[in-house]
Specification:
Layout: H1 2-6, E1 39-40, H2 41-49, H3 52-61, H4 64-70, E2 81-82, H5 86-99, H6 101-117, H7 125-138, H8 145-152, H9 158-171, E3 179-182, E4 186-189, H10 194-207, H11 217-220, H12 224-229
Antiparallel strand pairs: 1-2, 3-4
Helix pairs in contact: 2-3, 5-6, 6-7, 7-8
């Protein structure tokens, strides 16, 4: 996205901007939501891949370090606390619907550091509320962590996430991440390089319109105005 926003086509019919919706996905759907965390990620991965050697082979095969660097994560904390992630998914969706997708994307980036680098649990609701309030204040939104914690301790947003997961798994057949759905129809796998995305976005830019809107906006409760405002837009020139 940054490549197109920094270097727009001079012949494009209109400026391109992006509206990113983060569709929830649970790597460990059976984790107990009542527990602050279930285990260390090291233990989770060693069990999944048959020990340290099996995990090392898997990490090398999928270039996890390189993909992390590309995503702005210089170092993965292997001993981060693995937990049920419903609370963090609900939080990101809530912030996007209430304050706009650019704010939810900023929070999403902050939570990547919070979890992958700092190793904190995605089900530590008081800490999630603190981090979210700090991030929103950076964006000029004064909201107390107590208010965010009230939301996290409720069930608001749960039904939307459960419906989105049903579409993801049972209608689209997606059972692994990352996956990207462009224009509500083109599914691009996580192994794709950035050049493939640039080609797809350039074609849309030259066309001047999208073929289809996001298929998850309705079920996640994201309204048209929020989509129009976008999550990543071209910087305005004074």
């Amino acid at each position: 996205m940054d490549e197109l926003l920094r270097n727009p086509s001079p012949t494009a019919p209109r400026p391109l901007h992006f509206s990113v919706l983060r569709v929830p996905f649970f790597l460990e759907p059976n984790y107990d939501e009542s527990k602050p965390y279930e285990e260390s990620n090291r233990d989770r991965l060693y069990k999944k891949w048959g020990g340290a050697e099996g995990w090392a082979r898997q990490k090398k095969r999928h270039n996890m370090k390189g993909r992390g660097i590309d995503a702005g994560i210089p170092h993965f904390n292997l001993d981060r606390l693995a937990a049920n992630s419903m609370a963090s998914h609900r939080l990101v969706q809530h912030i996007g619907k209430r304050f706009g997708l650019s704010r939810s994307e900023a929070l999403y980036d902050r939570l990547n550091v919070y979890y992958f680098v700092d190793g904190n649990s995605l089900n530590d609701k008081p800490l999630l509320a603190k981090v979210a309030a700090e991030q929103l204040r950076k964006d000029g939104i004064d909201i107390g962590e107590d208010e965010i914690l009230v939301f996290l301790n409720s069930d608001e947003g749960r039904e939307e996430i459960e419906m989105a997961l049903d579409i993801l798994h049972n209608q689209l057949g997606i059972h692994s991440i990352p996956q990207f759905i462009v224009e509500g129809s083109t599914i691009v796998g996580g192994a794709a390089g950035w050049e493939e995305f640039v080609d797809i976005f350039r074609e849309i830019e030259d066309r001047g319109e999208v073929k289809r809107g996001p298929i998850f906006a309705g079920v996640l409760g994201v309204d048209d105005e929020t989509l129009r405002q976008g999550s990543h837009v071209m910087a305005r020139v004074a």
